[in-house]
Amino acid sequence: MAAILHALQQELNELPSQERRIAEVILQSPSDIPGWTINHLAQQSGTSAATVTRFCKSFHFKGFPDFKMKLAAELSHSTNETAYQDIVAGNPLSKIVEAIEANHIASIADTTRLLDLGRLEHAVQLLCHARRIDLYGVATSSIVTQDFYQKLVRIGKSCTAFSDSHMQITSASSLGEGDVAMAVSYSGETPETIDALHCAKHAGASTISLTSYGNNKLAAVSDIPLFTSSLEEGMRRGDMASRIALLHVVDILFTGMVSADFDRFIPKLEQSYHNVQSYRVQHNGGA
């Protein structure tokens, strides 16, 4: 199932009654939707064009044309893809290697189709010019924020990654205009991370969220919501494909920053590399 349709299915029972009717019509005939007008969808769902627009924006689309375009793109790819593969008892190692490769490739491809280039560009510009950057994430998400932290430090950005909820709030409280807080949570429902980003926003900082696609609380709090694929299900996957998807977006943001301000960041990146290499040679013979 396409990530957009999966998100609609997951959120169906939580939607207001009119928006639920729109989602039900879409789920019943997803391949027909790209050819419909907004008025036709409103008529089929017994709602109005304004309600359809509100429904699309609640799922972070610019409007119905944007929704149709992204749904069509997903549907054109999903017919040729296999489902994510879960852990199976007694699987030979060769099958495990194939399954993990397929899951990671699918996660990256699904995520790429969900990316909004306008939001990405805005996020890159904010991060490039930020006076200070706070990164918030707990559990598996903290691994992602630590990865981004190490990248940003290498290009000279003033940045800290916090996994402790008290320190997240403490640091967020001291942010202000010109600072950026970015919060990572695959579910988008981690209370500590939501509280920290809300605090940073209240303090005057610009806010970015990175979550799985859907109508979640963290995305709603942020100025710039970024999304990954939401297709990884089941408790036995150990946050594997989802972690890869989150890291994929982090790599895009970092590469976008360096490309956007090449003359400022590349010398710092090269200097940090040479300094680390010299340290390794000096202290452990290059091991």
From TrEMBL:
Superkingdom to which the source organism belongs: Bacteria
Gene3D superfamilies per record: Glucose-6-phosphate isomerase like protein, domain 1, Winged helix-like DNA-binding domain superfamily/Winged helix DNA-binding domain
Span of domain SIS: 123-263
Pfam families, alphabetized: HTH_6, SIS
Keywords noted in UniProt: DNA-binding, Transcription, Transcription regulation
Residue ranges of every copy of the HTH rpiR-type domain listed in the record: 2-78
Record has Transcription as a keyword: yes
Annotated InterPro entries: Homeodomain-like_sf, HTH_RpiR, RpiR-like, RpiR-like_SIS, SIS_dom, SIS_dom_sf, WH-like_DNA-bd_sf
The keyword Transcription is assigned to this record: yes
CDD domains attached to this UniProt entry: SIS_RpiR
Signal sequence, start to end: none
Listed name of the protein: MurR/RpiR family transcriptional regulator
